Amino acid sequence: MTATEQLVKGTRERPAQAPLRRFAGPGAVALLVCVLPLVLQDYQLSLVNSALIAALGALALTVVMGFVGLVTAGNAALLALGAYGAAMGGAEMGLPFPVVVVGTVLAGGLVGLLAGLPALRVTGIYLAIATLALHFIVVFAFNEYQTQAVGSAGFFLPIATIGGLAIDTTFKWYVLLAIVVLFTWWMVQNLKRSKYGRAWMLIRDTPLAAASQGISLSTYKLSAFIISSALISMSGAFLAYSQQTVYIESFTLELAIQYIAMVIIGGMGSAGGAIAGAAFVILLPTILSRLIALLPPDMYAAGFLQQNLGDFQLIMYGTLVVVFLIWRPDGIAGLARALSTMFLPGRRESAKR
Amino acid sequence: MLSLLVGALVLSAIYALVGFAWVLLRRTNGILNLATGAQLALGAFIFNQYATSWGLPWPVVVLGTLATVVALGAVTHWLIFRKLAGQPEFALVVATLGLASALKGLSSLTWGTEARVMREPVEGRVVELLDGVSTTLYGIFGLVAALVVFAAAHAFFRYSTTGIRMRAAAENSVLASQGGIAVDWVYVLGWAIALTAAAIAGIMYAYQTTLSFHGVDALGLRGIAPALVGGLTSIKGVIPGALIIGLAETFGVKLFGGSAQDVAAWVVILVVLLIRPQGLFGEKQVERV
């Protein structure tokens, strides 16, 4: 259903589903969340944690890229904003973790407003230019700050504590991140179905129709960018606290493109897809190096692949973005939907609606 | 003071070439090419491969680089952007970001990341222009290259049939193809010219500094600044744009130290977006519906 059809028909009426099917999805997610820490080792769970933090950023990016159809290259800058906010607030000023998180959300929203305001008065691509400028200026500023404050090693953060409870194990981080990601997921899904979500998708599909419905294009675009910026900045704070170090070299333009890859691979406009895309992008290097380890170790190619894993990652993310854009703009989420209609005949009916 | 101005002028020539690559693709192919930086670096590294690593004779180096870059442009169009035809602008911009990532990986895989010094066609002699005002021979090369490219582009788009076809395809691709213009070849030509200009800029910059992916890539991205100042779609607008960026960067470095080089252009971009987003010569692109 396109946004236009949704607007005409209204989204309130949802297909009547059998209770079993209706709760199957959330039930499976809940089961997965509970089972993962039981079956995974500590290292594997820490990978899941990285994927969850990335999922937070990807969910945020879905709002602005998937719902509104805007390109932003400022993801790494906003992550850096959150991370350095955490470094300043948590390490330098000694503020408690929850206060720092709220602070980074506000800072992210403010920077989103400042960067988006001039750019979104004009057509969408100007946001790509403004966020590119944001990236280089933010990285420059934090680099200067880091050099003056602590030097090139970067900042070390204290252990995050919430109301006296120290989050000092992988498992505790997992619980916290799972709660935050599930809440964000729920929020993004609700946003999508709200007045704002419908307006955003209408702007994406047919700006002309949106404007004639009395939707202010620049206000709605700006609101999406502000929400997204605030959330990405927050995920930067989580990233900094969970790794307990912050240094500027990790915030590259390639990192920004990685987040875009998550959204494109996962499927634009699908919140579940964004989480799947984040998991895919974060786990890809590990999966690749495991696969390479299966090759005979005396093979030249195996050593070459292992040594240049970083470069292969860049190539794969870039190629996958282009391939998905051409072949399946709806990403993994669309693939999953297509497969489920193919193999689960009962779903065919509801998918057609 | 005068030597600073000469330095700014030499830098502006390079920015003019990069800005030209941005504007040409935006105008002819309708693509905001965020992979310009990576492509600039790729062009310079290909040149370096022929010139330094293989030590080929200079005419072969120049023709070989040109042929490779043009072929790359054709591949880029047929393999990626031809297949994205009809998709919203959003998809095109994201595809260029993906392309940038892939090219960076490829380049780093092939040539590594450390800085290199390229084989020189002549000794990089310092040329004394006036008393105490000097530049390198490569600075002058860059200026000449920029002048030649702009003069050729002007003549090409105004007088040649192909150039007029390119303008027609840029204005309305459907009407142009109805009128018998092979739009795909126009787009291939757009990529070829843009990548050639970018490669020239990358090579000139690498001769004036050193060749490193990071440095040349960053230059290519900053090249969006002169394009934006000029209005993104105006070729003649690139020249004042490049002069402004060249001056801003030179004086930024003079006043705030070497690290200002990395941000001067981006600050100008934010200022332009604030005051006059359509640039000096661009049409107003405000969405009024």
UniProtKB/TrEMBL annotation, chain A:
What keywords sit in the KW lines? Answer: Cell membrane, Membrane, Transmembrane, Transmembrane helix
Q: Kindly give the CDD domains that the UniProt entry links to this protein.
A: TM_PBP1_LivM_like
Q: Please give the start and end residues of each transmembrane region.
A: 20-40, 52-83, 95-117, 123-142, 149-167, 173-191, 222-241, 247-267, 274-295, 315-339
Q: Which GO terms describe its molecular function?
A: branched-chain amino acid transmembrane transporter activity
Q: A Pfam family name for this chain?
A: BPD_transp_2
Its subcellular locations are:
Cell membrane
Report the GO terms under cellular component: plasma membrane
Q: How does it sit in the membrane?
A: Multi-pass membrane protein
User: InterPro entries in the record, alphabetically?
Assistant: ABC_transp_permease (IPR001851), LivM-like (IPR043428)
Q: What is this protein identified as?
A: Amino acid/amide ABC transporter membrane protein 2, HAAT family
TrEMBL record, chain B:
Q: What span is annotated as the signal peptide, if there is one? A: none
The entry's cellular-component GO terms read: plasma membrane
**How does this chain sit within the bilayer?**
Multi-pass membrane protein
Major subcellular location class: membrane
Q: Where does it reside?
A: Cell membrane
Q: Does the keyword Membrane apply?
A: yes
**Which superkingdom, per the lineage?**
Bacteria
Q: Where are the transmembrane segments?
A: 6-25, 32-50, 56-81, 90-111, 137-157, 185-207, 227-248, 255-275
Q: Which UniProt keywords apply?
A: Amino-acid transport, Cell membrane, Membrane, Transmembrane, Transmembrane helix, Transport
> GO molecular function, one example?
transmembrane transporter activity
Task: Please name the InterPro entries in this protein's record.
Answer: ABC_transp_permease, BCAA_transport_permease
What processes in GO biological process is this protein linked to?
amino acid transport
Family, similarity comment: Belongs to the binding-protein-dependent transport system permease family. LivHM subfamily.
Q: Which PANTHER family match?
A: ABC TRANSPORTER PERMEASE PROTEIN, BRANCHED-CHAIN AMINO ACID TRANSPORT SYSTEM PERMEASE PROTEIN LIVH
Name of this protein: Amino acid/amide ABC transporter membrane protein 1, HAAT family
Q: Which organism is it from?
A: Thermomonospora echinospora
List the lineage, top down.
Bacteria, Bacillati, Actinomycetota, Actinomycetes, Streptosporangiales
